[in-house]
UniProtKB/TrEMBL annotation:
This is Amino acid/amide ABC transporter substrate-binding protein (HAAT family). It comes from Roseateles toxinivorans. Belongs to the leucine-binding protein family. Keywords: Amino-acid transport, Signal, Transport. Gene3D superfamilies: 3.40.50.2300. The lineage of its organism: Bacteria, Pseudomonadati, Pseudomonadota, Betaproteobacteria, Burkholderiales.
Length: 379
């Protein structure tokens, strides 16, 4: 054997030895609207997931006796159902081991079939439409309460606590906006509230003069909006311009740190009331504050809404893989479905038979001085 051959053989042997000890990569997908009008919310969700990946890799994750490296594959669905299914298929083709997302119910619902057909677990950190977990897919989960709880609670709150005598409803006709508005209407009526008008817009609209003028004639004292903050902000500006001085109530889509900026200084203190489909109380508050501090240190940004839920969704997926001893979706999915009492920054996480979180919390908020203030945590 000549010297050159010896060197080549040694190099090949070294490479082979190295490859046998190569770290396994576990791929987790994230999908949200990281472009478009609500990109600030999609990026918030993605950054929460990335922080979880970063921290877990720093601690070291061992699955089935092997140390693994977690990798996040981010996709943009722009809040569009068609783009959402395309993003889902791209992740399936990339052979991800699990998915965190999507943000919007309107994209999560059609995408859930893509993941179900591929047998890949999907945990949404923010989709609240009840239909999301009611298609019978074993791969579909969420870590927030649904709109039956959220919309119904807001409806009762508007009728009883805000003493709404004449309540108007506007929704953006998306799966999320219309769904939460429907549940709000049921809750308000059940609590004795009178619905004096219902109008609709779309999630790209900027001019609401016609529907607001129509509602003003009906003299409401409370207006509920089912939609996102990118639409609610301009709507608040136009309400002010029209002299429609009412309380605005909305779901988690408007309940963001960005809303006062989008309203451009037209929000009065105590005018807007909203609910986030999640919340912590008691000793759990410190864990959430610690998360927000780590998030700010890592991203230089404040949490918008659901970054902590994306963070926990990653944690729940990885915990199930570790417990199952495998990142193979077919092997860890049954363990994921039986998740009980996972201790996250958002509280203890357990799933029911549909994949919904058990005993999901809501947090009611208002705004004062341009900042969101918590009113109560409701379960």
């Amino acid at each position: 054997m000549n010297q050159a051959f010896k060197i080549t053989a040694l190099a090949l042997a070294t490479l082979a030895a190295g490859s046998s000890h190569a770290q396994e990569v576990v791929k987790i997908g994230h999908v949200g609207p990281t472009s478009g009008a609500i990109a600030h919310l999609g990026k918030d969700n993605e950054l929460g997931a990335r922080l979880a990946i970063q921290e877990l890799n720093a601690k070291g994750v061992v699955i089935g006796g092997k140390k693994v490296r977690l990798e996040l594959l981010g996709e943009d669905d722009a809040g569009d159902p068609k783009q959402g299914t395309q993003a889902a298929q791209k992740l399936v083709d990339s052979k991800v081991n699990g998915v965190v997302g999507h943000l919007n119910s309107g994209t999560s619902i059609p995408a859930s079939k893509v993941y179900a057909d591929a047998g890949i677990p999907q945990i949404s950190p923010s989709s609240t439409n009840p239909k999301f977990t009611r298609n019978g897919y074993k791969t579909t989960f969420r870590v927030v309460a649904d709109d039956v709880h959220l919309g119904g609670t807001l409806g009762r709150y508007a009728a009883k606590d805000l003493k709404g005598q004449a309540i108007a409803i506007v929704d953006d006709r998306t799966a999320y906006g219309q769904g939460v508005a429907d549940e709000f209407e049921k809750g308000a009526k059940a609590a004795g509230g009178k619905i004096v008008g219902r109008e609709f817009t779309n999630d790209k609209a900027t001019d609401f003069s016609a529907i607001l003028t129509s509602l003003k004639a009906k003299k409401p004292d409370v207006v509920f909006f089912g939609g996102m903050d990118a639409v609610a902000g301009p709507m608040l500006r136009q309400m002010k311009a029209l002299g429609l001085n009412v309380k605005l109530v909305g779901g988690d889509g408007i309940c963001t740190a960005e809303l006062p900026k989008l309203a451009a200084g037209t929000m009065d203190d105590g005018q807007v009331f909203c609910a986030e489909a999640g919340g912590v109380d008691g000793a759990q508050k410190q864990a959430m504050e610690d998360f927000k501090a780590r998030f700010k240190a890592s991203t230089k940004l404040d949490v918008q809404v659901y970054a902590p839920y994306s963070y926990d969704a990653v944690g729940v997926l990885v915990a199930a893989m570790v417990k199952a001893g495998s990142a193979d979706p077919a092997k860890y999915l049954p363990v994921l479905a039986k998740t009980e009492g996972y201790k996250g920054v958002t509280g203890n996480i357990s799933f029911d038979a549909k994949g919904d979180i058990r005993n999901g919390a809501l947090t009611l908020y208002t705004y004062k001085g341009g900042s969101r203030e918590s009113l109560a945590v409701v379960r």
